[in-house]
Design brief:
Layout (H helix, E strand, L loop, with lengths): L1 H23 L3 H22 L2 H7 E8 L5 E3 H10 L2 E16 L2 E14 L2 E16 L2 E11 L4
Helix pairs in contact: 2-3
């Protein structure tokens, strides 16, 4: 009787370990999605604080921005603009965020509602943003942003 109960106990233990191991695993896409959502939030916070140290870490060296007016800027130009103080973000809300991961590449789309002062003039806008991310050397960096103004109805 003891050998049977030992075998039953061993089988139950093996199944329990297998179930716990599976429960602890997360799909690869979910982990990347969580990382990207966190980075997008860090980016929003950095914009609000004019924190170039965080922005510089998030943006790849070859980053390019196509803004809501169709102007194209490099990472260096974005840094110079942020440091110039010409623009001050008063409020910035991002929502309707969707993350699509394709291995070591990802696309994040979102809606951005911003109120800012540019050269002393207050501006409010609602835009659709598309950020393209690449995983380089084990970390995600944004390589491109496209912003499109949402027409006010």
């Amino acid at each position: 009787m003891k050998p049977i109960s030992f075998m039953v106990g061993l089988v139950i233990l093996v199944f329990a370990v297998a179930i716990l191991a599976q429960a602890g695993e997360k799909p690869k896409g979910q982990t990347a999605e969580q990382e990207l959502l966190k980075l997008e939030q860090e980016w929003t916070n950095a914009d609000l604080k004019s924190d170039w140290a965080t922005m510089g870490r998030i943006l790849a060296d070859d980053y390019v921005l196509t803004d809501r007016d169709g102007e194209v800027s490099t990472k260096a130009q974005c840094e110079a603009f942020m440091r110039s103080g010409e623009d001050k973000i008063l409020t910035l809300v991002t929502d309707d965020m969707k993350v699509r991961v394709y291995g070591d590449a990802a696309v994040v789309t979102l809606r951005s509602t911003i109120k800012e002062t540019y050269r002393g003039e207050e501006i409010s806008d609602v835009c659709r943003i598309t950020n393209t991310w690449i995983k380089k050397a084990g970390r995600w960096q944004c390589v491109a942003t496209q912003g499109t103004r949402i027409a006010q109805k």
